[in-house]
Design goal:
This protein has one domain (about 5-340): TIM Barrel, CATH 3.20.20.70. The protein has 12 helices and 10 strands. The chain has helices spanning about 5-15, 25-35, 45-55, 70-75, 85-90, 120-130, 150-170, 190-210, 235-250, 265-280, 295-305, 310-330, and strands at about 20, 65-70, 95, 100-105, 110-115, 135-140, 175-180, 220, 255-260, 285-290. Helix 10 (about 265-280) runs antiparallel to helix 11 (about 295-305). The mean pLDDT is about 95. Bound molecules: 1,3-dihydroxyacetonephosphate.
Length: about 350
Amino acid sequence: MNIDELQLVARSLVAGQKGILAADESAPTIKQRFDAVRVDSTEESRRRYRELLFTTQGIEASIGGVILQDETLRQASADGTPFATLLAQRGIHPGIKVDEGAKALALFPGNKVTAGLDGLRERLADYKQLGARFAKWRAVIDIDERAIPHRYAIAANAHALARYAALCQEADIVPIVEPEVLMDGAHGIARCEAVTSQVLEAVFAELDAHRVLFEGMLLKPNMVIAGMQCAQQASVREVAEATLRCLQRYVPAAVPGIVFLSGGQSAADATDHLNEMNTMGPHPWQVSFSYGRALQAPVLAAWQGQENNAAAAQRAFARRCRLNGLARAGKYARTLESLA
Ligand code: 13P
């Protein structure tokens, strides 16, 4: 394990105004996103779309890394430059999603555990050769008002995340540890805070037991937020306060950065929440983003698969990157959404 390299990469992913673009949608997920804008999902349409993202001018000011998936890491731009090289030349670290998705947890109805540990050491060696500097593994924690998640589901996911993180660090790849408590449901913000607290406590206990170097990893959590179907939605300030309270209690100061997922929030809400937290600093860790939908939804809407929309799509992407970069410094305002 090269401790210096791990620390350097982890810190540079969240340096200054930077965060991460999650562009690692699995084939079924990207198909859903493409269906919504009536684009056929083929290997070539996925390649074209991702080339559009990765070649957008100016994004390197606020994007320190991009999470790819297996197919994309092996693809190249139209001029034949592998995507990993293209990104690295722009000073953006290429990353790779290595989990194999959340599966039903046997004998625990309504609970899931993420698969993908078998053969992971060999896959990581391959990804390192292909240029990946960091990785992602997503645990999915379903939530309801009382019985879900079961504590065994939390324990099983925490254990898998720690096994994954240790294997990454052994291969000199920075692990992004993502325990996502879902936003789906009618539960209130207090229930989300209680579950997120239990999950983070379990995850850091397992990471520690597995000898994972906190300085050489990033945490990718959900924000603490009311369920999407909850009648009583919390204010931006309440979300920021509850999220920071939870993180301060359970995330060691040695972790260089927290990079939130957007989880179904609108692009503007995700930026606003991030901004609010950054107005409440200083914090022991960088407070940043690793958004998928909140960075890409406006891009897909502008693109619609049409070549003559590519410039507008890139403008929409550059704008979202810029606004989230501002939110990293607590300098975003909702009024900026209506400006060009
Ligand atoms: P969202 O920001 O769309 O939640 O995606 C981030 C991610 O990588 C989920 O694993």
